[in-house]
Predict the structure of Syntaxin 5.
Amino acid sequence: MVIERDRSNELYDLFRQCTSSQARRQEAPLHSSNEVQTFNRFAQGVSRDIAAVSDKIMQLAKVARNQSVFDDQTAVISGLASSVKTSLQKLHDDMDTLETLKTQSLASQRGTGGNNLFRGNALKTSQKHNETVIDTLKSRLASTGQTFRTTLQSQSKTLRSNANRRFQFTSSDQPQSFESALFQEQEQQQQQQQLMSGNTNTQYYRQRLDAVRELEAAVAEVGEMFSDFARLTHEQEDVVLRIDVDVDRALENVNAGSNELIRYLSNISSNRGLILKIFAILFFFLMFFGFFVVH
């Protein structure tokens, strides 16, 4: 005889527990996704800013190449250099902010959700992704800063060269004095023009000297700003070299494994021939003895 028992309450309790646990699982990713989305949006903004700075540096290099002795583009070059330096300083600060957002994102993800294996793997994957994004942006920013530094150094050399060439073109010896009274007035006018030209050249050289000093100061600031990023770039190069070595070793192991498989296949093939011969001999003896037994 079967005894019936009402277990509807247990079923309802189990259903409520499943519903509440599912709701908690749905709320946790929404909270963590906001932090992750903030990090991703900020990283995308930093990437766009780096691209914009690279375009400015290319424009600066183009203006510097097109500059000649009598085509002064110092004002344009100084404006672009100042804009790029300000943007690089902002990007340097943005990288610190990005590090803070990465820490907050990981902390929020650890604070929500369970401690199961899937959650732990998701946290490790997210942490690895964030670190890769930051390292990539740092590498791009370091490369951009190095390009800007090289451009400023080249522009500084160009300014010195143009100043020397202009000095050779504009400087001249004292004009020959004429004893005739007819040329006295003309000689005085020439001397006045030469004095005015000398004052203009002096002012020009002072401007070039100030421009060179500004560029050299910018080079020093950029060098100090990106010394850490340069170190990071060298470390990444070492990592890449180690990865190449590991890939070569893995390729050697794969080739060795392939050779072992081919050798094993050849052994199996030779054993297969031997087994077929044994079965053929047995079949022959069976047929032979069966023939004589039957007869």
